[in-house]
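task queued by scheduler; priority normal; single chain, no ligands, no partner chains; default sampling; output format set to structure tokens
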Amino acid sequence: MNKFEIYIIAGFVGGIARGLSSFLKKQRAGNAPKFNYQYFFTTVFFSGILGGIAGALAENNWKTSFLAGYAGIDFLENMYKSSPFAKLAKAAAK
């Protein structure tokens, strides 16, 4: 396995860790919504891509990719929440 593949896998693992820790934190607080598989896997997919790119650009090690994947979900969620798509989705849900 080459380094780039390891970086991508580490990015995905970081994204999964972040997504699950966020869901479990909300569940323990008692205000967890129904688990949204589509949203979870979409954010994990893109955080894995971001982690792989960050690891490849930094040419450091898999830990950089893991952390980039972990932080990538926060970045993606905040981008989505501040985008016009989130407002349209909320309006359509009403």
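post-processing summary
- The mean pLDDT is 76.
- The helical segments are 3-29, 37-58, 62-81, 84-93.
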